[in-house]
Amino acid sequence: GMGVSMLENAAAVLPLATAVTAVVTILGCYAISRGTAQLPTGLVFPQISLLGCDGPARLCFQCGLTTAGLMLAANIAIYAHLALPRFEEPLRPRLRVAVGLAFIAAAGLCVLGAVPLQRNCIDLVEGRAHGFTTDSIVHVTGASTFFLASWFHGIVAATAYDASRALIVKDPAISKAATRRKLCLVAPVIAMVVALGVKPLLPTRRAELQAGALQQWVAVASMIALFMLYSVDMRIFGSQYTELTVALEGQAGGAQCTETHAPNHDGVDGTRDSPPYSGKLTGSRLAPGATGASEDRGPRPVARRSPSSSE
Question: What is this structure's pTM?
Answer without folding.
Answer: 0.75
